Amino acid sequence: MGRKLYYVLATLQLVAVFLFCGGFFPQKVVLKNDSKFIVNPEVQLASKPVFKKLVLVVIDALRSDFLFQKDSSDFEFLHGLLNSGEAWGYTAYSNPPTVTLPRLKGITTGSAPNFLDAILNVAEDDTSSNLKEQDSLLKQFHTHHYKMNFFGDDTWLKLFPLEFFSEYDGTNSFFVSDFEEVDFNVTRHVPYQMEHQKNWDVLILHYLGLDHIGHKGGSKSHFMPSKHREMDSVIKQIYEKIDGDTLMVVLGDHGMNDLGNHGGSSSGETSAALAFLSKRLKKYQSSDIQQSSNVPVEDAHPDYKYLKEVEQIDIVPTLSMLFNLPIPKNSMGVIIDELLQLLPSKLAAIKVQDNYLQLTKLKPGYEAQLEKKSAGTLLEEMREIQSSLAMAATNYNYTFLTYGTTLMIIGTLIVTVWNFQLSQEYIEHVGTSVLLGISMFASSFIEEEHQIWWWITISVLLLMQISNGKKLVVLSGLRLIRGWNNSGQKYIYDNVLHTLLKSHTSVLWWLNVVTFLSVGFPFLRNKDESEKMVSLLSVSFLALSSITYKICFAIVNGDKVPSGLYTFALRSCAMYLANENATESDISQCLVPIARIFFQICGVSIIILLFMKYALNKSTNMLNKLLSVIKFVLLLQTSSANIPLFLIFEILTSVTPDITPIFSLCLQNLTFFQFGGTNSIATVNLTNAYNGVSSNYNIYVVGVLMFLSNYAPSIYWALSLIPQSYKQKTLRLQHYYITGTCLMIACIALRYHLFIWSVFSPKLCYYAAWSLYNVVMDFAITLLGVL
Questions:
Q1: What top-tier enzyme class does this entry carry?
Q2: What is the mean pLDDT of residues 95-113?
Q3: Do 669 and 487 form a contact (C-beta atoms < 8 A)?
Q4: Residue 39 has pLDDT above 50, yes or no
Q5: Could you count the other beta carbons within 10 Å of the beta carbon of residue 275?
Q6: Which of 3, 625, 648, 676 has its CA 20 to 30 A from that of 173?
Q7: Which among 61, 162, 172, 168 is positioned nearest to 122, based on CA atoms?
Q8: Higher-pLDDT residue of 651, 697
């Protein structure tokens, strides 16, 4: 296939993918204008709210067991309130995608999440998700002249106009290495706010530290208990200062899985904690389950369902009722029935009817009937309406879906016919592509895709024309890769090499040092003396700066490192800070500068290599040297416990230097999953997305770093096939055409499937990201003239 046709087809694939995504992830259509009271508006307008003030404390990723289960919870003060009846607890079901932006939309508007919000969740400067024109709980508070103060996650300041808040101070939600300062910057406002309660009617606090700990160390991190106690002390500090006319609500926006990630639909991710706190509640009866339970609960529930379960969006009509506000127009929530006790019976009945009529307006063609229906009957009917609305919350753009799928089918036919030949290589490629394509129609196969790639990789290895000795070495390496991390979304194993090495830090870190040095070896293969000197300096600076950064990063995050490396990092920071008395607390000041120095060295090294090649015509082994620089970047963007895997990669490439395109394709996919990646948003790793990024957030820099950190092993094996012929490239392109076409057809056919947003949609996003990388990399290599 000619070069021009290849690039036309590659571009066509990218256009088709983004056309399809544009139709599959449209902005949700919402009802405009603000809501008004529907049933007996004059009675409701004349009524007084149950509470005068609201304190809303959002603890990011507060899973239900963190609040209610003995082995997982250290909220002693809150436990006392739950047992005395001054607090009522619930497990709040958080609709996927379980990331902050869509969940805050759900908590404030009561509407179903839009998957596009999960993607925009990392776009700090994005304004397309703004709720200025959409009816919400905060807009109703603002309209009814409640003074609101906000402190915490600045996602709120993206969602709502600043004029909603009398006072505000945002903290950045994505610097996940920060456990303490990000919460201190919220808590420092609490004493003043408690002493000046006349200055606000609604106080919103959003804490991020617990979520950050989860991302770094998982749900059982040793930092968790102290963070629980810290949050509990904040709750106590506030509760002891407020009076009976103030309602306090403590909740998580979502939960997390055992690895500390979230975004998917597992029980841990969707089970968030919720508690209403008020001295008044003691006079009334909490849910039957709570009355018969002693908190914290002794038994651990694998489904994380503790006390009574409600929908998280039920907070919206419930708070609207308690503060006598109209329910936001797009709310799909249903009033939590226990809290109806706080209203006079006649007013409570009116509020339930109002909720019923408001909810039925969201379901076209539904005949609302109030006559002779009790509040209990209406609540039950509303639950059924709520379920049906959640199932049909998206409006697809079928024109874009049709165009995108049609272009993919056309491209698939062209590239398949053009490549057709009866050879082992072609049959292996087509067989792999068809097998993966068929798997796109089953949610379980997508969730456990790593299993498919494992068996395909082993099969391809056995068919390779290499000696049995080499096959044995490669097979051993693959088995180590396979056992390194937990993969997939259904099962978690305790005994993996990743966990074992983290408990033997000396072995881990010396393996890391050896890996960094091994990646630099191609630099040292030179014939010219001047090249040798330049190469030696480049390797030295790249290795030293990257190793120093990873050690400092580990120390700042509370990970153990060998004493020798600890001393080395401390002295390096002391030199940078020009402070001989630098201590461990000073190391954090060096992280951003060291990372930037590393990236600058990478840039200078590449410029020198290109200059020596094209200006002096004397660069030896230039391609491998450029790849070594890129490998150093990939190492920096990889978690410390995964870095030794690159040492195995180096061994495999030395054993099979002439890697076949199909084996490279297998390793690109297999290693992505064995690094801990999945087809779920929950495993998108943000830990290394901020290397070298200061408080001046740049979405494009963070986006590139995030891509590199999540696709590092795949990029390694994709680059291992350079240089490659256009015949080899078209076989790879054919694979992504076939699997992409099947994925698009599956998404259309299963668009109303239960797991469309938690399984199929994330897979589509991963596919689009990798397709973009392949096209950009192909164009970049061509422009550089490497091939």
A1: transferase
A2: 86
A3: no
A4: yes
A5: 24
A6: 676
A7: 172
A8: 651
- Strand 246-251 and strand 165-171: the pairing is unpaired
Radius of gyration of the chain (CA): 28
Do β-strands 271-277 and 246-251 pair in parallel, antiparallel, or remain unpaired? Answer: antiparallel
Least confidently predicted of 12-21, 24-33, 178-187, 621-630: 24-33
Residue 752 has pLDDT above 70, yes or no: yes
Length of the chain (residues):
787
Ramachandran sector of residue 40 (left: φ over 0; alpha: ψ -120 to 50; beta: rest): left
Q: Tokens representing 470?
A: 């080499």
3-state secondary structure of 558: coil
For residue 119, the model assigns a pLDDT of: 64
In 520-562, alpha helices (H): 529-556
Within 10 angstroms of residue 133's Cβ, the number of other Cβ atoms is 11
Residues 6+ apart with CB under 8 A from 225: 74
Helix (H) or strand (E) holding 54: strand 53-59
Distance, in Å, from the CA atom of 304 to the CA atom of 361, rounded to the nearest integer, reads 33
Mean pLDDT value of segment 339-361: 94
Nearest 5°: the CA angle 234, 236, 237 is 65
**What is the residue-wise DSSP string for 247-278?**
EEEEE-S----TTS--SS-SHHHHEEEEEEE-
Q: What is the C-alpha separation between 742 and 278, in angstroms, rounded?
A: 54
* DSSP letter, residue 164: G
Q: Are 366 and 315 in contact (CB under 8 A)?
A: no
* Paired sense of beta strands 308-311 and 87-93, if any: parallel
Residue 277 pairs with which residues in a beta bridge? 87, 248
In Å, how far are 163, 463, 731 from 456, measured between CA atoms? 57, 11, 16
Q: Domain-by-domain residue ranges, the chain?
A: 41-96+137-391
Average pLDDT rounded to a whole number, residues 304-331: 96
- In three-state form (DSSP H/G/I as H, E/B as E, the rest C), the secondary structure along 414-437 is HHHHHHCCCCHHHHHHHHHHHHHH
Residue 135 has pLDDT above 70, yes or no: yes
Q: What is the mean pLDDT of residues 579-599?
A: 87
Rounded to an integer, the average pLDDT of 388-408 is 84
Nearest alpha carbon to residue 517 among 544, 552, 484, 535: 544
Residue type (1 letter), 522: P
Does the pTM surpass 0.85? The reply is: no
pLDDT tens-place string over residues 660-696: 888 999 999 999 999 988 888 878 887 888 888 876 6
Strands lying side by side in the sheet with 271-277: 165-171, 148-153, 202-207, 53-59, 246-251, 271-277, 87-93, 308-311
CA distance 15 to 641: 37
Instruction: List C-alpha distances in Å: 296 to 88, 341, 546.
Output: 13, 25, 45
Rounded to whole angstroms, how far apart are CA atoms 124 and 322? 33
Task: Say which residues have a Cβ less than 8 Å from residue 665's Cβ, sequence separation at least 6.
Answer: 429, 432, 732, 735
How many Cα atoms sit within 13 Å of 700 on the Cβ side?
0
Residue type at 219 in one-letter notation = S
Q: According to the model, what pLDDT value does residue 578 have?
A: 81
pLDDT in tens, 411-434: 999 999 888 888 888 888 899 999
Would you say 42 and 430 are in contact if contact means Cβ atoms under 8 Å apart? Answer: no
212 Cβ neighbours under 8 A, 6+ residues apart = 175, 176, 177, 178, 179, 182
Return the pLDDT at 787. Answer: 41
pLDDT at residue 176 greater than cutoff 90? no
pLDDT in tens, 483-533: 998 787 666 677 788 888 888 899 999 999 999 988 887 666 666 666 677
CATH dotted code for 41-96+137-391: 3.40.720.10
- 744: exposed, middle or buried (Cβ count in 10 Å: 0-12, 13-18, 19+): buried
Residue type, 227: K
CA pair distance 644, 118, nearest whole angstrom: 32
**What is the distance between the alpha carbons of residues 784 and 787, in angstroms, rounded to a whole number?**
8
